[in-house]
């Protein structure tokens, strides 16, 4: 369960971004949106969803992109560029794209993530010297790196290495750790590499492979980040040559959504080729789905299995352009499933950005689940805040049960831009008349 994500000097977020999925104080109503996990005598609470609003180019996608970048850096264990470029998020593999373009002083790029899994609460922080924007070949360095588990310091690198509470490590330690703890500590301190993460290298090899596996398994399997709508590409786990593979659950959902064909299935004509989605048309055979179904149907079929995976595994699903080509009622149903305590039994979470005002509804989202992003017109720097940050009294008061949609469109909450193309067409027509 994701509790908090932070970043600083990441693209348009020059100042620190704090994206919290921890319930804000004094928020009443919609208690079914709250998730709870016991960790010994302590209970952690999280929000089951968050919806992000803001004008185009305000920085909404940069929040999701920053999550994806941190995930990518941790899993590969270093801050060197990847040869394999990311199609959906170039900054994940080309790190000189990360620093704020207006910053000329080589301000560090900071990340922090806090989450629970396997009965443990993890907090991991990174501060990176990546140089300036588009500075290729820069000698990158990990400036600081901190891991806390259950709020206890495990290690701190700043830049030298300090090791904290090893009692927790012992339970998850590699074989022979206790007998050789002193020598392992000394060896670790002498073998830090500037552009590599201690977590994924020295700590993993010499201290606790098991703890690192819990972290990486959560990142790989449960932190499900999609930076672009077209990055959602579900595929069947098995598909034999010349055999139609039909997933009953997906077909049932597709019928409710409104497919044009009898059914949808995956078919592969070659054992080495990637299965393609087909529409099944009674006795008339099959045709490729993208030539028969609407774009919205194709996107729904690609997205729905990922929604299922998140709900069954207790994953945190983060999607850019969640509402692209999908009817609001279908989206509303998915949101309600994440809010349903009887269905969301594994503490799954849904985070998405949108332009659709239908979600600005006090009966659907808590105030701390509604997030905003706006960008300063002079500095081009983004800021992020929640509806719960507004007080309950005064000119910009936000009260439980208020008309959030109306107030948003009259710019009471900010994060909205007046868009009027009239002057462009007036100028165009005037130029044509002069000709």
Automatic annotation (TrEMBL):
Q: Know the name of this protein?
A: Abortive phage infection protein
- Database matches in InterPro entries: ATPase_AAA_core (IPR003959), P-loop_NTPase (IPR027417)
ATPase AAA-type core domain: residues covered:
50-360
Q: Name one GO molecular function term.
A: ATP binding
- Secretion signal, residue range per the UniProt entry: none
Tell me which species this is from.
Paenibacillus riograndensis
